[in-house]
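Internal tracking record. Fields below are filled automatically when a chain is submitted to the structure queue. Please do not edit lines marked as system-generated. If the sequence contains nonstandard residues, flag them in the REMARKS field before resubmitting.
Queue: standard
Priority: normal
Entity type: single polypeptide chain
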Amino acid sequence: MKIAVVGTGYVGLVSGTCFAETGITVTCVDIDKKKIEDLQKGIIPIYEPGLEDMVKRNVEKGLLFFSTSLEESIVGCEAVFIAVGTPPDEDGSADLQYVLGVADEIGQYMQEYLVIATKSTVPIKTAEKVRQKVSDALKKRDNKLKFDVASNPEFLKEGAAINDFLKPDRIVIGRDSERAEKIMKRLYKPFLLNGHPIIFMDITSAEMTKYAANSMLATKISFMNDIANLCEVVGADVNMVRKGIGSDARIGNKFIYPGAGYGGSCFPKDVKALIRTGDQYNRSLEILKAVEFVNENQKAVIPAKIKSHFGDSLSGKKLGVWGLSFKPHTDDMREAPSLRIIEMLIDAGVKIKAYDPVAMEEGKKILGDSITFCEDKYEALIDADGLVVVTEWPEFRVLNYHVLEKLMREKVIFDGRNIYDSEELMEHGFAYYSIGKQPVKP
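SYSTEM-GENERATED OUTPUT FOLLOWS
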């Protein structure tokens, strides 16, 4: 079986590589010539655990190819996946120019029946626009080739994408023909052998499922952050509250960890897009508007705690920041809470030294010379007035108190992810500010 995946960003590269891992012949297509040349050399444009080795292995096996030519790549394919970016417009709606551009090209070049599946996260009714683009391109060729459009949203977690694709909780496919269903079922058969469910539905429902899933997870996060902020005021411990409600099977213990706000390429963009869709259909999604509002405010909580400790004037203070990526095990800094936190601290006159295990290069691209980037986590604490933890990387979880005491000018930690034990920190003479719990001071 042969397929093409258009777009070698996070979704496209992971999807194409994992399909190749099951024995399918895959060509990943991108208009970025430099990126394709790098991929052909084994240079991976993103950080994702396990991806580099899998790419190299399948290239060597002759199952995975990279090309800038869509025309050549779709020859002999049974399906083409569209996995290009859908960045938000100024009004929050998803920009479909790249998706529809690919659809137009497919219509120009296809020579036989194809299933054209959207893998990108796209607004409801995008499949209809894709179908129209392909049809229009075929008409210009005076060609009556048959094709089907399908929606196959991805549910990948950055940092665990390989496992998510190979061992999915579920596979969602929207289709409107038996022929398309048959091809998609055969394509995904290797992933069903361990009992992972494949759910076929109409295309519009599949498009909605992706947005609804991410918006529900974002809602849980914002809800817990709202509760955490109330806990601080009334004197409750949000960690205990989280355990109490998470033991309820109806609620569950995932995505109820309070913190400095969510970020990344999915939740902020998808929440905005679904809000925009609701407005377009005169169905205002008030809960999601509140979710977005709470999340933006949450990114200001850590700077507020820093001001409460040092006083309103932060000019000249030096802080070490651990973590730049929006979550562990990725170098993705899109909508990362670290960016808002650092921006607010710089505006207040704080000098910042930062460290992240994998997002340093990305951080330099975005932040330039506005902060100092360090080679290791402890370098960031030399002469620091405090430590700010923004991303819960595993290497940050155990502190060397002896080293901290020697390096830091003041023993205070602002923990945006609640990864430390307040009693242990207090025993070592540290003031500790976390989320959803009153601060402790020695």
